[in-house]
Amino acid sequence: MSAAVDIRKLGKVAVLMGGRSAEREISLLSGNGVLAALKSRGVDAHAFDPAERDLAELKREGFSRCFIALHGRFGEDGTVQGALELLGIPYTGSGVMASSIAIDKVMTKRVWLAEGVPTPRYVLLHRGAYGPREVVEVPDALGLPVIVKPSREGSSIGVAKVEGYSDMAGAVAQAVALDADVLCEQFIAGDEVTCPVLGTGPTARALPVIRIVAPEGNYDYQNKYFTDDTQYLVPCGLPPGEEEAIQALVVKAYRVLGCRGWGRVDVMIDAATRKPYLLEINTSPGMTGHSLVPMSARAAGISYEDLCLQLLASASLDQAEEGAGA
């Protein structure tokens, strides 16, 4: 796969990592992994931390494209993408609109529901617009348990599984400290899976589904990145036909948001009905030693280095796509 990429045409490459979000630590792990992989293939790649340097330096220093290894706000939410559009420097992953929608779990749900993509029922609480009564009534609408999370954070930061009415207030307070919008979501009991997507538009394709088996079913920040207790099953071992159905659904969800380059969709499968429910989409997924896109790619015969090279080669601009026919 890497043989098809002309390294010389990639030019001077910035790997954007670190940043200012709550996921800075993970972004540095991702970025350093990508940087080492690109360098091993002869790419003129350099680390660039937007929390420490002005993005305008990218232009002044002659960078010709960027690999975005930032996670969360100011990296995965359309802001960096918009700056790179203005600078005219192609970048990996989704463009401005798809990034800004996908970072917001509520906006993502609204688009998916409008397009017939199944996602758990939810109640939205906005900071300053709810009182104790509205909080305690959420389980009446969604049942128990309830998942409470900030609308615009990743890596399971600020997420709580609420088992009883008395725990609602604390969970909401934890989430609202991180985001003005708090997403209260119906809990789906069953298999937890994730499915990466590579490509753009009609060429987008799903990679193998990974089934996640976390200690006591708790796939939190710690179990995602810093323990070896979580099992990742690929092949996923789902009943015949289920993996293909989920892959088709995930590609549809990716396309209706206008995503490009790559992404990863998290899915819960209801144990009783076997119906899949899509939770969220990551448009700048992790690339650490524990990360799932490289794991799935490996199962499809794509090495970590080839994956990084393929993603870098796909770097583009929104404006270039729009003006292609001009």
From TrEMBL:
Record keyword Amino-acid biosynthesis present: no
Keywords, alphabetical: ATP-binding, Cell shape, Cell wall biogenesis/degradation, Cytoplasm, Ligase, Nucleotide-binding, Peptidoglycan synthesis
Xref: PANTHER family: D-ALANINE--D-ALANINE LIGASE, D-ALANINE--D-ALANINE LIGASE B
Catalytic activity: 2 D-alanine + ATP = D-alanyl-D-alanine + ADP + phosphate + H(+)
Protein name as annotated: D-alanine--D-alanine ligase
Domain of life: Bacteria
Domain ATP-grasp: 109-313
Function: Cell wall formation.
Pathway it works in: Cell wall biogenesis; peptidoglycan biosynthesis
Reported cofactor(s): Mn(2+); Mg(2+)
Annotated compartments: Cytoplasm
Family as reported in the entry's similarity comment: Belongs to the D-alanine--D-alanine ligase family.
PROSITE patterns the record matches: ATP_GRASP, DALA_DALA_LIGASE_1, DALA_DALA_LIGASE_2
EC number: 6.3.2.4
Any GO molecular function: ligase activity
Gene name linked to the record: ddl
